[in-house]
Design a protein that fits this description.
With 419 residues, the protein is α/β, with parallel strands linked by helices. The chain has 14 helices and 11 strands. α5 packs parallel to α6, α8 crosses α14 and α9 crosses α12. The relative contact order is 0.14. It binds 3-amino-3-oxopropanoic acid.
């Protein structure tokens, strides 16, 4: 994989030019994407032209090429939301986060494949770790493009588990920042209480570097790691949904963290927090039904059967149920804040197991959706694999608004697992 932060330092030093890096990415894309299908659209020429701008390497992103998930509007490339309803659709303006990429000196080399409206209908992308397996979703192309070494960084989105789960399946670092750290203006909305922009990179320091470059926040952790963090392991009430490989990965992470000096304790989540897991689908259903009302009312026959059936069911959620779900979520966030008085991070599953074989599903968000609703920073940490050699992720959950601490904790675990 391409190491974004190391490449940025090479670009800044002049040992590598942005044009040469674009050429390297383009060569890998040409060699690997025909069998992986990570990209919905490419703009190599546009990236080459942008790479020629003098002084680019001194910018925060130093001329690094990025893939942008195709639910995020781009003025220079089609934005099709994973649906033929929007075939060839060309937004008049870039999404706010795309402007942040360009202002920071990043190069948009292409649009990465999304599932239909970032929901559950699998797209055509394959897992670079094993081509007969799903890469996960809904940020399928973003995770696959980074895993295959086509780009050093990719933008994705998460409403359920669409950053953390594909990152785990493809063996890359996925970072879902605190809610609204990155602006969702110009992203195709599914749920305005849940939609969160995230990043994919090879390592924790790479996504931290990118987040710092985009936002100007103190998130570039470099080689730093947390010192002896207090870790609460939470398998949650859904632990029965985790396969043996995920339990084994969590056990390996616990052992590695303990060896590295962490204080690790396994706890049960308080009932108020567990209750929010059931609130997530109520909020997603109510808001998704409205966010996709035009497509559902006017083009239902051109939606996948999965999405059409979902939106039909989602219409049944009442305003009272929606309001109660939001109150449940608020109580859970308050209780979670209390929990973090005693711990620096939570450690849990990233997904039920390794990437499922076949392409009938992109996997389950069972271990992601609660944290999406909590709005807390989450990272998939690499370093574990199952008996067949497929990556199995473990997930760090940090305190709301404390993203630097979450990145340092994730870097601590990443290093502990690598040693
Ligand atoms: N958009 C989403 O997060 C849905 C999923 O978990 O696949």
């Amino acid at each position: 994989m391409l190491l974004a932060r190391d490449l940025a330092l090479e670009l800044l030093s002049g040992r590598l030019s942005p044009i040469d890096l674009v050429a390297r990415c383009a060569e890998t894309i040409a060699a690997r994407d025909p069998e992986i299908g990570a990209f919905a659209a490419l703009d190599i020429a546009g990236a080459e032209a942008a790479a020629a701008v003098p002084g680019l390497a001194a910018a925060p992103l130093a001329g690094l090429p990025l893939a942008i998930k195709d639910v995020i509007d781009t003025r220079d490339l089609p934005t099709q939301y994973g649906s033929d309803l929007y075939a060839g659709h060309r937004p008049a303006a870039d999404a706010a986060v795309v402007r942040q990429v360009k202002r920071a000196g990043g190069l948009v080399i292409g649009k990465s494949v999304t599932t239909e409206f970032a929901f559950m209908q699998p797209a055509g992308t394959r897992n670079p770790r094993r081509l007969t397996h799903t890469p996960g979703g809904s940020s399928s192309g973003s995770a696959a493009a980074v895993a295959a070494g086509m780009v050093p960084l990719a933008l994705g989105t998460q409403t359920g588990g669409s950053v953390i789960r594909p990152a785990a399946f493809c063996g890359v670092t996925g970072y879902k920042p605190t809610f609204r750290t990155l602006p969702t203006v110009g992203m195709k909305t599914f749920s305005w209480h849940l939609d969160t922009l995230g990043l994919f990179g090879a390592r924790v320091c790479d996504v931290g570097f990118a987040a710092a470059a985009l936002t100007g926040r103190d998130l570039d952790i470099g080689d730093a790691v947390a010192q002896a963090p207090r870790i609460a392991v939470v398998r949650t009430a859904r632990a029965h949904l985790a396969e043996p490989a995920s339990h084994a990965a969590l056990d390996a992470a616990i052992a590695a963290a303990t060896r590295a000096g962490a204080v690790v304790r396994e706890i049960a989540l308080p009932d108020e927090i567990e209750a929010a897991d059931a609130a997530h689908p109520v909020i997603q259903d109510f808001e998704g039904n409205l966010a996709l009302a035009d497509e559902f009312d006017l083009h239902r026959d051109r939606l996948s059967a999965v999405l059409a059936a979902y939106l039909t069911r989602a219409a049944a959620v009442t305003p009272d149920a929606y309001d109660e779900a939001r109150r449940t979520a608020k109580r859970a966030r308050q209780r979670l804040g209390d929990l973090f008085a005693d711990y620096d991070m939570l450690l849990t599953f990233s997904a039920p197991g390794a990437a499922p074989a076949g392409f009938e599903t992109t996997g389950s968000p069972a271990f992601n959706r609660l944290w999406t609703l909590m709005g807390t920073p989450c990272l998939n940490v690499t370093g574990c694999a199952d008996a067949q050699g497929l990556p199995v992720g473990v997930q760090i959950v940090g305190r709301f608004g404390r993203d630097r601490a979450a990145l340092l904790s994730a870097a601590f675990l990443e290093r502990a697992l690598a040693n």
